[in-house]
């Protein structure tokens, strides 16, 4: 009887060990902003089982105005975060060793949207005007652009910076001549608010030569010294790339998946479908495609930031701020 009990015990231990071996790796992704089509590829990968196929148990945490992804990463609340390169480089220089392991967006969606009635038709007309700007790390490309143009950002003959909330109200309330918008989000809100394209002048950062890399994936540098973590991140990146490819090919269906995961109920089908269509235009399709950080594009962002007189951005050439080790591993799977 005792032998039988021991056998059962040993069997239970072996069974538990087997379950433990087969258990999926857990990974938490912290988004830069709320649940919306800006992050469709991750939700598609989750919904379509791409993460499951690679034995990953992925949790996606939406962002928001009170959530700083870098702080979440530093505090252990996420393994991977979505962030913009200027913000990530500034954070790294301040002491948090974040590393880009994958670049999803190849183009910037940022622009200034201006009222034609303001008299602004070229950047030379910005002097004396009030421009709405996002902060919390999103201001760096704008400050670099103004520095390039030679404008002070303290008013007077320079530009007056209005600290813009994450909406487009200032352009409707007469508080700003221009507001910051993303091609895939706030610009649509401006149109939905009643203004027409004919009433607006757009300045895309891409066209002005001050575009910087936006949505990329970041982890802590110390994790890349662990082969097991590199493999887990590679699985995540591989599945996420597949999700983004599917989302770009099926924009309406991808938007519907995003809506399923929006617990706030604040998003609408029309807005998310439009957003997904615009986001697809920004995906990294050059070189090795989605997920690969092009060193030339990285250097362009660094140069834009280093050429700025504004603070705080970065003050020296970053070292070790990106790595292809995860991408290369993902491509070998």
TrEMBL record:
Family: Belongs to the NMT1/THI5 family.
Function of the molecule: Responsible for the formation of the pyrimidine heterocycle in the thiamine biosynthesis pathway. Catalyzes the formation of hydroxymethylpyrimidine phosphate (HMP-P) from histidine and pyridoxal phosphate (PLP). The protein uses PLP and the active site histidine to form HMP-P, generating an inactive enzyme. The enzyme can only undergo a single turnover, which suggests it is a suicide enzyme.
UniProt keyword annotations, A-Z: Iron, Metal-binding, Pyridoxal phosphate, Signal, Thiamine biosynthesis, Transferase
Gene Ontology annotations of biological process type: thiamine biosynthetic process
Enzymatic reactions: N(6)-(pyridoxal phosphate)-L-lysyl-[4-amino-5-hydroxymethyl-2-methylpyrimidine phosphate synthase] + L-histidyl-[4-amino-5-hydroxymethyl-2-methylpyrimidine phosphate synthase] + 2 Fe(3+) + 4 H2O = L-lysyl-[4-amino-5-hydroxymethyl-2-methylpyrimidine phosphate synthase] + (2S)-2-amino-5-hydroxy-4-oxopentanoyl-[4-amino-5-hydroxymethyl-2-methylpyrimidine phosphate synthase] + 4-amino-2-methyl-5-(phosphooxymethyl)pyrimidine + 3-oxopropanoate + 2 Fe(2+) + 2 H(+)
UniProt domain SsuA/THI5-like: residue ranges: 37-254
Record pathway: Cofactor biosynthesis; thiamine diphosphate biosynthesis
Name of the protein in its database record: Thiamine pyrimidine synthase
Stored SUPFAM superfamilies: Periplasmic binding protein-like II
Signal peptide: 1-23
Summary of subunit composition and partner proteins: Homodimer.
Top-rank taxon: Bacteria
PANTHER family, A to Z: 4-AMINO-5-HYDROXYMETHYL-2-METHYLPYRIMIDINE PHOSPHATE SYNTHASE THI11-RELATED
GO molecular function: metal ion binding; transferase activity
Gene3D superfamilies the UniProt entry points to: Periplasmic binding protein-like II (3.40.190.10)
Classification via Pfam families: NMT1 (PF09084)
């Amino acid at each position: 009887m005792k032998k039988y009990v021991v056998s059962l015990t040993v069997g239970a231990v072996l069974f538990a060990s087997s379950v433990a071996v087969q258990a999926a790796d857990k990974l938490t992704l912290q988004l830069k902003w709320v649940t919306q089509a800006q992050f469709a590829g991750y939700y598609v990968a989750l919904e379509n089982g791409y993460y499951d196929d690679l034995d990953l148990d992925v949790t996606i945490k939406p962002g928001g105005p009170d959530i700083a992804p870098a702080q979440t990463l530093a505090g252990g609340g996420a393994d991977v975060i979505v962030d913009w390169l200027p913000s990530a480089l500034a954070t790294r220089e301040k002491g948090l060793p974040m590393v880009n392991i994958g670049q999803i967006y190849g183009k910037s969606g940022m622009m200034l949207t201006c009222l034609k009635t303001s008299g602004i038709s070229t950047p030379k007309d910005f002097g004396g005007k009030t421009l709405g700007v996002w902060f919390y790390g999103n201001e760096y490309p704008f400050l670099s652009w103004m520095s390039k143009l030679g404008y002070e950002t303290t008013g007077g003959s320079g530009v007056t910076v209005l600290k813009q909330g994450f909406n487009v109200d200032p352009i409707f309330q007469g508080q700003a001549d221009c507001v910051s918008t993303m091609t895939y989000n706030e610009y649509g809100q401006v149109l939905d608010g009643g203004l027409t394209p004919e009433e607006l002048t757009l300045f895309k950062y891409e066209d002005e030569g001050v575009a910087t890399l936006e949505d990329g994936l970041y982890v802590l540098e110390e994790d890349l010294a662990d082969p097991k973590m590199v493999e887990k991140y590679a699985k995540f990146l591989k599945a996420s790339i597949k999700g983004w490819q599917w989302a770009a090919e099926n924009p309406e269906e991808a938007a519907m998946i995003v809506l399923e995961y929006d617990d706030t109920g604040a998003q609408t089908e029309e807005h998310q479908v439009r957003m997904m269509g615009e986001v697809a235009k920004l995906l990294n399709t050059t070189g090795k495609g989605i997920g690969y950080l092009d060193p030339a594009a990285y250097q362009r962002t660094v140069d834009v930031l280093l050429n700025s007189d504004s603070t705080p951005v970065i003050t020296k050439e970053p070292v070790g701020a990106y790595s292809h080790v995860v991408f290369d591993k993902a491509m070998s799977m």
